[in-house]
Amino acid sequence: MMAERWGRLTIDGGEHVEGVLRTYLSQIAAVVESVVPRSQCRAVILLGGYGRGEGGVHVEAGRERPHNNLDILVVTRGLLALDLAGVKRRVDAAIAVVSRDWIVAVDVGVISALRLQMSACSVMWYDMRFGHKILLGEADYVRGLSRFTLDGVNPVDFRNLLVNRGTLLLINEMLLGSDETEDMRRTVVRHGVKAIIGYGDAFLFFAGQYHWSYRVRRARMASQTQLSPEFRELYEGAMQFRFRPDYSFYADTDLRAWNCSLLARLEPVHLKVEAALLKRPGLTWEQYSRFPRRNALAGGWLSYRAKLMRLVGLLRRRGFHAGVLPRKARWHEWCTRREVLSFVFPLVAYGLASNYRRVIDGAVDCDSIDRQGVRDAYLDAWARDGDHNYCRARFGDQLPAVVGDA
Predict the structure, then answer these.
(1) In this predicted structure, what is the pLDDT of residue 21?
(2) Own/partner pairs for 142-150, CB < 8 Å, 24+ apart?
(3) Which CATH code fits 154-282?
């Protein structure tokens, strides 16, 4: 049976929680098989912590329970791009029926085999290649995607990972501005843990120490000498929470103060990551902000094709006037919106925005000079152009959920 080949799904969960997860996965496989014909389904893959065999387990009422969502990727074949949305709707609807009483949520993504094969190498695909379970399909299909290597990942992908996780701390600030509920406090803690791990993982990549396994990264961080003992302790605590979460540890914590302290303690790690990405040892935020276009485009600007495509895009946006080239473009007009947000994030997050207002002007739509006003403008831009999952945190069920980050 395929279930017997899945191996462990958690680090140290007992047989009860492992059995619960195997039951869920068997039902997911059966559901997908019932709504997606075999001729159209290349594979069904379990990603994330459970795909790595490192899923989280928490204890509730004396019994172990799964803690993380189940991240499922359906890989199709022989279908047009327009058909994929329909596949996702059918799979989501069928899983919703069987999972009503489950104690974890299921996030489903759908991609064609051709699109996956042609996708740029990213940290998400590298992690998937080496940390996954095949629910349906050939056992060696994903391992055979040989172009997804760590060497092939664009370093900017790790900057984006760090910014994605760091933005969760700004979302925490927004959440903590309202009345605290138990669910909201748990969300804030999870965001904080994700941020710590994300910053640490980005640093490990630039130190040549990143690995797809949480366990290996945890061990490598413990032996790091370039980061402070305080951060290594933070990372170790976040990994402990990742595998075996204990919310009671934060029961009496002032989460506003905790979140603020995280931003302060993570800021020097971010600066080290930017220094490595930009190849500028000893980089300061003043130096970082001095050349916004060059630094925002780190990793892609040397490509002549990239230069040409950006120029074409710029001219399309700005147009011509009386046959004359437009006036000199501001730095952010040469960049994608995601590049702009990744660049301005540290200036917003670490309370530097008022010092570098000339850089932020136009990058985000903000009339205010106080930190909260700049933060809210950044988060509004993030909702549109960064990570649409943010919309769920701000607007709840008023907007449709969009699956996933890496």
Answers:
(1) 96
(2) 142/43, 142/45, 145/116, 145/117, 147/121, 148/121, 149/121, 150/126, 150/210
(3) 1.20.120
